[in-house]
Amino acid sequence: MNFPSEPFRIKVVEPIKRTTRDERERLLREAGYNLFQVPAESVAIDLLTDSGTSAMSDSQWAGMMLGDESYAGSKNFHHFEAVVRRLCGYRYVIPTHQGRAAEHVLCSTVLKQGMCVPNNMHFDTTRANVEHQEAEAEDLVIKEAYDPHCELPFKGNMDVARLEETIRRVGPSRIPFGMITITNNSAGGQPVSMANIRATRQVLNRYGIPLFFDACRFAENCFFIHEREPGYAERSVRDIAGELFSLGDGCLLSGKKDGLVNIGGFLALNDARWAQAITDMLILVEGFPTYGGLAGRDLEAMARGLEEVLDEEYLRYRIGQVRALGALLDEGGVPIVKPTGGHAVYVNAKEFLPHLHQSQFPAQALAEALYRDYGIRTVEIGTVMFGKRNSATEDTIYPALELVRLAIPRRVYTNQHLSFVAEALVDLYHRRESIGGLVMTYEAPRLRHFTARFEEETPAAMVWPGAGFAAAPLS
Ligand code: F0G
């Protein structure tokens, strides 16, 4: 499979600093083997996240110069509001500085202790915001989502039967809203079909429960619907997005993904009473309702980004680039989650490092090795991020999936960079037995993956294949 040609020219470049393996080894030790603690300038290719890492277009940068920084009633807000209303059709548009702030103002306003939020799969900050209100975050994605080998076109779908069971068990009065995360980041960036969204809506309707989308990768999800779902090939992605949002009552959106901006987010909804209460909370924690924690220029950039992301040539390139990286890894024998998702390729660390038990943090160990040997930063989505301790027995409950996510920033890395990433992983796979496990020496009570510290279980006995890559990591 070939990489698609980039539908843009590069006008501004940022040099990549080269580091040696010895330097990276030292940086890792200092960082407690946590890649969130490694200085970004010492990373050659940064696939930690696709969030806030996009390259903005010339039009977005031009829009930044048109920032109206008035405290109230900025013209950029009115432009932004018009763009969001045209995209989603929701009446009230509430800007926030990023996605989790939208989660916070929603959850702290409408969730109470003992309530429950069903979702196909909560992202970690969404789960944390639900649990912070002492409510239950219920993941109800179809069971195939937990099987890295199962190839389904819409592996992010909600298990509608389990949704209905959950509502009956918990009682609709304890479920203020249901959610669907598009695409499903936590299990492979997999899309949700329009048919499944409609079916979810129907179940929720029966019990009078509103539906909210966690829509930060909505355009990628809609492009998959355009590509894969019968009846949508002739429909534009904008049109598909309109239909999708019309099936919900509101959305939370981190603009740092498909908004193509470095900061920004929003909440949009139809219910006037909720909008009022959320806005009151917004003023307390984010800012006045026409800026919500952002500068006028940020709102302008996000308004333009939300329009640009619907360009189908861009989306074809975007999804194609990620898919081509997945294909290179697959051809090289590297076990990955199939099919390749929208914003990232997920390496199956359980199969990559079968000699390590989950208690030895195989996905974290693989991410460390990839940074140490090649300067490539990725993120663990496995036991570090989702492992839990059973408070009664002190045993660890391990997540079903143990993954390393290669998240691809939008419009940032060339196809050549990604070929290098594939070569690096294939090489590591060939000498995988040399990768040892890790021991966790510190963990915070919540969202531990950001600050956890580790030590190597055994001294690294890595066999270094040659000096070539160390001296020139971007060969
Ligand atoms: N929902 C989903 C599905 C996400 O992936 C994220 C962020 C958020 C909500 C929160 O948005 O970061 O703007 O506060 N995901 C990033 C990631 C951090 O790396 O996947 P935020």
Q: Strands across the major sheet, in which order?
A: 2-8-7-6-5
Strand content: 5-15%
Number of strands: 16
Distance between the termini: 21 Å
Largest sheet: 5 strands, mixed
Task: Please tally the helical runs, counting DSSP H or I stretches of 4 or more residues.
Answer: 17
Radius of gyration: 22 Å
Write down the oligomeric state.
single chain
Name the structural class: alpha/beta
Classify the helix fraction into a percent range: 25-40%
Could you report the average pLDDT, rounded to the nearest whole number?
Answer: 94
Unreliable spans are: 460-475
Task: Tell me which ligands are bound.
Answer: ligand F0G
Q: In one word, what is the shape?
A: globular
Give a brief rundown of this model.
The chain has 475 residues and is α/β, with parallel strands linked by helices. 39% of the residues lie in helices and 13% in strands. The strands form 6 sheets. It has a 5-stranded mixed beta sheet, sandwiched between helices. It has a 3-stranded antiparallel beta sheet with strand order 9-14-11. The protein has a two-stranded parallel ribbon with strand order 1-10.
Properties at a glance:
475 residues; five-stranded mixed β-sheet; three-stranded antiparallel β-sheet; 16 strands; binds ligand F0G
Task: Explain how this protein is built.
With 475 residues, the protein is an alpha/beta fold. The protein has helices spanning 21-30, 58-64, 75-88, 99-110, 124-132, 160-170, 194-206, 218-228, 237-246, 272-285, 296-308, 312-331, 349-352, 362-374, 383-386, 415-430, 468-471; strands spanning 45-46, 92-96, 116-119, 136-139, 178-181, 211-214, 250-254, 265-269, 344-348, 376-377, 379-381, 388-389, 396-397, 403-407, 438-442, 453-456. The protein has a 5-stranded mixed sheet with strand order 2-8-7-6-5, with helices on both faces. Helix 2 packs antiparallel against helix 11 (296-308), helix 4 (99-110) packs parallel to helix 5 (124-132) and helix 4 (99-110) crosses helix 10 (272-285). The chain is globular and about 60 Å long. The protein starts with 20 loop residues before the first helix and ends with a helix. The relative contact order is 0.16. Residues 460-475 have low confidence and may be disordered. Ligand F0G binds at residues 49, 51, 98-100, 123, 125-126, 181, 185, 214, 216, 254, 256, 265.
